[in-house]
Design goal:
- The complex is a heterodimer of chains A (about 100) and B (about 725).
- In chain A, about 80% of the residues lie in helices and about 0% in strands.
- Chain A has about 100 residues and is mainly α.
- Chain A has one domain (about 1-85): Helix Hairpins, CATH 1.10.287.
- Chain B has about 725 residues and is an all-alpha fold.
- Chain B folds into three domains: about 1-70 and about 90-245 and about 255-260 and about 295-325, no CATH class; about 335-535 and about 575-620, no CATH class; about 625-685.
- Helix content of chain B is about 70%, strand content about 5%.
- Chain B has 28 helices and two strands.
- The longest helix of chain B is centred in the last third of the chain and has 77 residues, at about 625-700.
- The chains are: A mainly alpha (about 100), B mainly alpha (about 725).
């Protein structure tokens, strides 16, 4: 039973990572980050259920709360970028280029 | 006092410093300091002498009892007195000493235990060799202390008048003090190294004093000549000292070197080399042929200095050195058993050569200078034939009458303002009675007429030459040399007296007798010239307690001195030799008297006879030694040497310099192109380029693309995760 959860988590994580690295839109990157966080949540819940403990579920709830805050901040940054450069394409955001 | 005799030289040495520093501000311009210091030294020397007599007597009493037996055994072969000397006992090698029998043996054996008083401090150590300085106080040293301080004191007093008002009066007295101090130090020197140093110091002082009036070129030339000629001999001294140092097993100690030499601890070759080297030193210092040329020229110095040099300090240093190292000479030259040796030959040549030159000089001081050369020849000859005591006795008596003669000539020149006997003197006995009387006494003493000092000492030398040595001849050849020398001495001294004090006055003005400060030393020295000879009256002529006192007290018989060897012996008084010498001396006087007073003989022969003129020319040119040295040796060496040096300069030295320049240019170029340009610059540029390329590469990473950063982040995490899983 545990393996399926872990596998799901891993797949979700990989999809998330792919999204973070490959998507050009900042919004999609934020969404992919959500996928990664949820992959982690699945793992937490799975291990929590396996151990018969609520700590995992509590921790998952905590992650969801932090993720909500993170998305708030992230979208605010994206909005600020959009206002400056009229684009959410991450390739255009390269002012830190060395 | 014997233990503290080393302070005697310190007084004149301190006086030198004081005079130099404060002399000009003192009321008598420093002369009082010098006189006081030398006076104290003289008083201490007298005390030392008295103590030494006591020391010898004590040692004799202590040893006397035990030695009686030994001497009785030794005396078995003793012949009749006097006869034994004539019969040469070649086989035993002890021809002379047997004559007097037991008494003399007992005395000698007893003397053997007279230990010298020594004192020693380490100067420095180097490589395990202990270089020490110290005092060696024995018979000859005690005797020399007395002679040097006495003559020096009289010269000091005399000088206060003679150089009064001189522009370097203070300076003069300072160096008189240093001269005295150096000589006293040399006399007491315990090691050859010390001897060498003080020997040089004496030379320096003589240089300064001979050149006292250096403003005139001849004077400074004479000073330089004296100094440089002495350098030649000093090389010999250094070689001798070094040779002896190694030959004697690494010691500079005079007593030890002599002990080893006498006891056969040093190889014959080393001894011969050392003796010949030291002989060169004696030849230069004591004015022996062929290095005598500086001594007459040294007359350019003030007359008191001449007296000091000739009587007490400078020239007798050579004689003294031979006497001190007598073990080396005695063994090196086989003095005891040969009939001719280098030392005696040098002395013999000098006796005749110096006396011959004295005839043609018109400068009174130069006559006396050649006389000194001749008399020093006697001393060296005496040492050469083995008559050590006779040599030192002659040194002792000669110091008084020669100092008297020199000071007398100074007194004369003070009156007539010249040294030229032919042009500016003559008939001075009327004006200068005191100088005349003392000069006559000293002259007679020098000629050696009974009973003045020169008679006794010269007779002892002649007796030594006739009786000592080995073979059938002994040193008889040197007896003839000595007699001829005695004749010539008598003749040339009579000539000096005639030209100076008799006849008509040829100079200008009115000469006057000198003041008391000049006359009193003359009388003291003349008195000593009369009595000094009685210090060593032969046993045949005096009761035992008075005879041979000089030999008894001053001869350093000990383990280090050949006195213990059977081959070293003393000549007996010989009436025949003494009478012959006296008669020959009188004949010399008589002949000169006839020649000058009676105008007899072939006067003007030098104008008429070619042979006589040639002889005169040779003498007037001083055997051409100066020409030999200046023109032939110096001139002959100068040209080729200069050319050779120029060639070396042009080719070798310039070549080296040029080569070095070229080499450094090439090296510089190589360094510039290869090391500086390539290695150093390459390093700098390379590191800069490496940094730039590294920066370029690193710049590629910072693309500013967040996703690229993220990819690196995830990639790195993946790698680390893989490592974590695989390895842990």
């Amino acid at each position: 039973m545990l393996n399926q959860f872990l596998l799901l988590g891993a797949i979700l994580f990989c999809v998330g990572v792919y999204g973070v690295l490959a998507k050009r839109s900042a919004v999609l990157v934020l969404m992919s980050v959500e996928l990664i966080l949820n992959a982690v949540n699945i793992n937490l819940l799975a291990f929590g259920a396996l151990a018969g403990d609520v700590t995992g579920a509590v921790f998952a709830l905590f992650v969801i709360a932090v993720a909500a805050a993170e998305v708030g901040v992230g979208l605010a940054i994206v909005l600020a970028i959009y206002r400056n450069s009229h684009s959410v394409d991450l390739n255009d955001v390269d002012t830190m280029k060395g | 006092m014997l233990d503290h005799a080393w302070i005697i030289p310190l007084f004149p040495a301190a006086s030198f410093v004081i005079i130099l520093l404060f002399g000009r501000r003192l009321p008598s311009k420093g002369s009082e300091v010098g006189i006081a210091a030398v006076g104290i030294a003289f008083a201490l020397a007298l005390v030392t002498n008295v103590s030494w007599f006591g020391h010898v007597n004590d040692a004799e009493h202590a040893a006397g009892a035990t030695e009686e037996h030994a001497s009785a055994v030794v005396d078995q072969p003793a012949g009749a007195p006097g006869e034994a000397a004539a019969v040469a006992q070649e086989g035993e090698g002890t021809p002379a000493v047997e004559g007097e029998g037991g008494e003399q043996h007992a005395e000698e054996e007893a003397d053997a235990s007279v230990a010298p008083v020594t004192k020693e401090v380490t100067w420095f150590e180097n490589g395990g060799v202990d270089i020490s300085v110290g005092m060696l106080l024995d018979g000859p040293a005690v005797m020399m202390l007395f002679v040097v301080t006495l003559v020096s004191l009289l010269v000091h007093v005399y000088s206060t008048d003679y150089v009064a008002g001189d522009r370097r009066y203070t300076h003069f007295f300072a160096f008189l003090s240093l001269f005295t101090a150096s000589m006293l130090g040399l006399v007491l020197a315990k090691t050859t190294l010390q001897l060498l140093v003080l020997w040089e110091l004496v030379g320096v002082c003589s240089f300064v004093l001979i050149g006292h009036w250096w403003e005139e070129k001849p004077n400074s030339d004479a000073a330089l000549k004296a100094f440089l000629t002495n350098r030649v001999g000093d090389v010999g001294l250094i070689v001798g000292v070094v040779t002896l140092f190694w030959a004697a097993g690494g010691t500079f100690d005079i007593v030890e070197i002599n002990t080893r030499a006498v006891e056969g601890g040093i190889g014959q070759t080393a001894l011969l080399v050392a003796a010949v080297s030291l002989l060169a030193a004696v030849m230069s210092k004591s004015g022996q042929f062929i290095l005598h040329t500086w001594l007459p020229d040294a007359m350019a110095g003030p007359t008191p200095v001449s007296a000091l040099i000739h009587a007490a300090t400078m020239v007798v240093a050579g004689i003294y050195m031979v006497g001190r190292m007598y073990g080396v000479f005695f063994q090196g030259f086989h003095i005891g058993v040969s009939s001719v040796n280098a030392l005696a030959v040098v002395g013999g040549i000098t006796v005749i050569g110096g006396a011959g030159l004295a005839f043609v000089q018109n400068d009174i001081k130069k006559v006396l200078a050649y006389s000194t050369v001749s008399q020093l020849g006697y001393m060296v000859m005496a040492l050469g034939v083995g008559a050590w005591t006779a040599a030192f006795f002659h040194l002792f008596t000669h110091a008084f009458f020669k100092a008297c003669l020199f000071l007398g000539s100074g007194s004369v020149s003070h009156a007539v303002h010249s040294f030229d006997m032919r042009q500016d003197m003559g008939g001075l006995r009327r004006w200068m009675p005191h100088t005349y009387r003392t000069f006559i006494v000293a002259t007679v003493a020098l000629i050696g007429i009974f009973p003045l000092a020169g008679f006794w000492s010269k007779d002892e030398i002649l007796a030594g030459a006739s009786q000592l040595g080995g073979g059938d001849l002994n040193y008889r050849g040197f007896l003839i040399v000595g007699l001829v020398g005695a004749f010539m001495t008598a003749a040339y001294m009579t000539r000096v007296v005639y030209l100076t004090f008799f006849g008509d006055f040829r100079g200008h003005g009115h000469p006057h007798e000198s003041g008391p400060r000049i006359v009193v030393p003359l009388y003291i020295l003349a008195g000593l010239a009369v009595v000094a000879g009685f210090a060593n009256v032969p046993e045949a002529l005096a009761p035992e307690s008075l005879a041979l006192r000089f030999e008894h007290y001053y001869e350093p018989i000990g383990s280090y001195f050949p006195g213990e060897l059977p081959a070293f012996s003393h000549p007996e008084f010989s009436l025949g030799v003494a009478l012959t010498a006296t008669l020959i001396g009188l004949a010399g006087i008589g002949l000169a008297y006839l020649w000058y007073w009676r105008e007899a003989g072939p006067h003007g022969i030098t104008q008429r006879s070619t042979v006589a003129r040639a002889g005169y020319t040779v003498l007037a040119n001083k055997y051409y030694f100066d020409h030999l040295y200046t023109d032939i040796i110096a001139g002959g060496i100068k040209g080729p040497v200069a050319r050779g040096v120029y060639w070396i300069n042009q080719n070798v030295i310039d070549g080296i310099v040029d080569g070095a320049g070229r080499l450094s240019t090439a090296v510089g170029r190589f360094v510039y192109t290869h090391i500086d340009q390539q290695v150093v610059d390459g390093t700098v540029i390379g590191s800069a380029a490496a940094a730039q390329r590294g920066g370029q590469a690193a710049r590629q990473l910072t693309s500013g693309k967040v996703q690229q950063y993220g990819a690196l982040l995830f990639g790195a995490v993946a790698v680390f995760a893989g490592v974590l899983i695989i390895f842990i």
